[in-house]
Design brief:
The protein is built from 5 helices and 5 strands. Strand 1, helix 1 and strand 2 form a beta-alpha-beta unit. Helix 1 packs across helix 5 and helix 2 runs parallel beside helix 3. The protein is globular. The model has no long low-confidence stretch (mean pLDDT about 90).
């Protein structure tokens, strides 16, 4: 399956950063939808199907953690890999969040957009690999 078959949701309230992430993911041939905050992201997952979500932690109306809590509470969304972006790495208990909220990876700002694309590709590849008996 090619990247163009994969739909990524980017939840980021900083328009410039959302644009950079979107540009790099689209350059890697992903379909990308951008949500300007957690509430809009939550509405988007109820209307469209996403293969992976990249979310900022610190957003208005609903934080990335609150968004992930809502996702994990709904059976049909539990399997979606989530990559979290944060400027508050020292304030968050990242290992606990990975376990409790099923966060696949976290990136501290500033980060390399290429690293985000690589992480998206790696996590989607891991999800699509058949499980050996």
């Amino acid at each position: 399956m090619s990247n163009s078959d994969k739909h990524i949701l980017v939840a980021e309230d900083n328009a410039a950063l959302a644009s950079v992430v979107r540009f790099n993911l689209e350059r890697a041939d992903f379909r990308v939808t951008v949500a300007c905050n957690g509430r809009v992201a939550w509405e988007a997952v109820q209307e469209e199907t996403f293969d992976l979500i990249v979310t900022d932690q610190q957003m208005p109306e609903m934080t990335g953690c609150e968004f992930c809590e809502k996702l994990r509470a709904v059976e049909e969304f539990r399997h979606i890999p989530v990559i979290m972006l944060t400027a508050k790495g020292m304030e968050l208990e990242l290992p606990r969040l990975k376990v409790e909220l099923g966060i696949a990876a976290t990136f501290l700002k500033p980060f390399s957009p290429r690293e985000i694309v690589k992480a998206v590709e790696d996590h989607l590849e891991a999800v699509s690999e058949p499980v050996s008996p």
